[in-house]
Specification:
Blueprint lengths: L1 H7 L8 E5 L4 E9 L3 E7 L5 E7 L3 E5 L3 H10 L10 H10 L1 H7 L6 H19 L3 E3 L2 E3 L1 H6 L1 H17 L4 H10 L1
Antiparallel strand pairs: 1-2, 1-5, 2-3, 3-4, 6-7
Helix pairs in contact: 3-4, 3-5, 4-5, 7-8
Length: 181
């Protein structure tokens, strides 16, 4: 789960440029090269697979480039609400690679106020986690709850881990889910 978040946060390379063609089709991705004669755009096929398309400028009707701070802001918005069971190190990493990096790089951005709000939310969650609280499926459990309802909370954690393992939809994910059981 944390690795997925880190992949989402390859923040400096995130773009959502759009090329509209004269025939009505469009390509969305990252423009990697633009000359007077041609334009290249990296289009995501899947989460990990990308294809580079080379298009003749004569066939292009419009090129819409997304500002880097807009693309980065879109990724930062995905950080909240945070996933279940994040530890303090993971939250600190989110803070530094997300809002703090954004604010230092784009201090004059129109998104500054919203990013500061997201930063405050992440800092509040970090404070809770550092005090021993646990977030599980959008509900917070205090250290006292974890003592008083230990069996219940541990069973919820096990169920959460099983569900998370099953999300991959592959045979090995089913085995991982059963190992959690």
């Amino acid at each position: 789960l944390f690795l997925t978040l880190l992949l989402l946060l390859g923040l400096s390379t995130v773009h959502a440029d759009i090329i509209k063609m004269k025939d009505g089709s469009k390509f969305e991705g990252k423009i990697t090269l633009q000359t007077p004669d041609l334009i290249k755009i990296e289009v995501p096929i899947t989460e990990k697979i990308k294809e580079t398309k080379t298009l003749a400028m004569a066939d292009v009707s419009e090129v819409i480039k997304t500002a880097p701070d807009d693309a980065l802001f879109a990724e930062i918005q995905k950080m909240v609400p945070t996933p279940s069971m994040m530890n303090a190190e993971q939250l600190k990493s989110l803070l530094t690679t997300g809002p703090e990096a954004f604010l230092s790089q784009y201090s004059g951005s129109k998104h500054k106020e919203k990013v500061e709000d997201i930063k405050k939310t992440l800092e509040a969650e970090l404070d809770k986690v550092e005090r021993g609280n646990l977030k599980l499926e959008d509900k917070w459990y205090s250290p006292q709850d974890r003592v008083n309802f230990e069996t219940l909370i541990e069973s919820k954690i096990t169920l959460f881990r099983m569900k998370s393992a099953l999300k991959g939809g592959r045979y090995f994910n089913n085995i991982a889910a059963m190992r959690n059981y």
